[in-house]
Amino acid sequence: MTTEVPYESARSIADGVRSGELSPVDVVETYLDRIERFNPDLNALVTVTAESAREAAAEAERAVERGDDLGPLHGVPVAIKDLNRTRGVRTTYGSAAFADNVPDVDDTAVARLREAGAIVVGKTNTPEFGRKTVTDNPLFGASANPWDLDRTTGGSSGGSAAAVAAGLVPIALGSDAAGSIRIPSSACGVFGLLPDFGRVPDGPDRPDAFENVLPYTFLGPIARTVGDAALMLDAMAGPDVGEPYSLPAPEGSYLDALDASVSSLTIGYSPTFGGFRVDPVVREAVESALDTLSAAGATIRQLDLSFGDSWDERHDALEWILQERYVGLYENLKRTAGVDLLETDREITPEVVSRIRAGLELDASTMAAARRRRTAVYDEIQRGLDGVDVLATPTLSRTAPELETTDPTVDGEPVHPMHGWTLTWPLNLSGNPAGSVPVGFDDGLPVGMQLVGHRLDDRGVVAACAAVERELPWVGSYPPTGLGGTA
């Protein structure tokens, strides 16, 4: 794979198209060529919409020639996670039961990206219904990490992160219920943002508008740079009257947050985020990044967080909440698509079936216990943020595991296969915004640092991540070969 980068960033593409220096047709052809050449090895995109992308690019070029008002993403290619519906484009949810599903409507975030001028070039791989922290499913198989084809991308937005990392698209949409934006962003060496809950509406098909009264599922951008993510978030953010927990329009542009001074930052550092096992080389990479920020004028305070009860019980709280969510998914698909995931003769991932069955057996006292444990996590995270701008932790306990690994280890010790190596999911319980920014390597594999912000301050997270990016100039680099190799 060539190391040639077609264009520097989504922002430069948009600027070039707007000025007339770049043709949307040429831009889309460049990325479709990269997809054709390199996606077979990565399996990042599972559906490529070449024909409709070319048509959209031609219309985008005509709009420039006519002097039309152009959206902020005019002519910029984007990939959409296969959990998000796309009008007229197959949306499978990574499930054989939906192999031929073609929605007649865009999800709200997809519609807003199109309205901003972005051109959808394909759908990205995901585990079935986003079930796992790695990206594989019975329908399409596994996605490979561009830094090492024998390693996982992480999940569940692994296809989106791999596509961005390998330069198949400049930006991609992800979703996050337990770290699914930040996990693959860390594993693949790109930037991923968990915005404030309600910042990017989900809709429009939600039979229970109040399901997310306690937030844990978020939509957000995956990009090569913080600036590209800010541009994408500007296009997607804003209220939706159909979603009672969507937020009012943010004040100003997220792009305005990119120039915050490093010296103005006070960063709280939690090395284990309350008790996770962390590989020493990952901790060293994160602390080296913090040393760089300190030398540039940031104030670093090490914090000792404690979540009280054992992490095993926390896993239960998260799992109970996700089981409840899967019951909603199960009932919705029966109602809207006529598919009973417990009765279909098509192959369904056993973990999906078991989660639905377990959710159907949940009782009120169990869910009350889950909410109490969740409250303890929430309170401790807010305490950790007291007096600091952001809280820093490793994003993952280790670099990307091998593709076939079902029992990952951290520093030689076995950990919970789903949540023991990801320091992300407590933020889905608390609802705090967070970003994962690449800060180093271990044996050629990227290491990410997670920056956690105050509630309703995802702009502060964008500002802090942009400051890290400025101080670590290798951030945003491509894999040396695009398909493995060392940095």
From TrEMBL:
Lineage: superkingdom: Archaea
Annotated protein name in UniProt: Amidase
Transmembrane segments: none
GO MF terms, alphabetically ordered: catalytic activity
Matching InterPro entries: Amidase, Amidase_CS, Amidase_dom, AS_sf
Amidase domain segment(s): 26-461
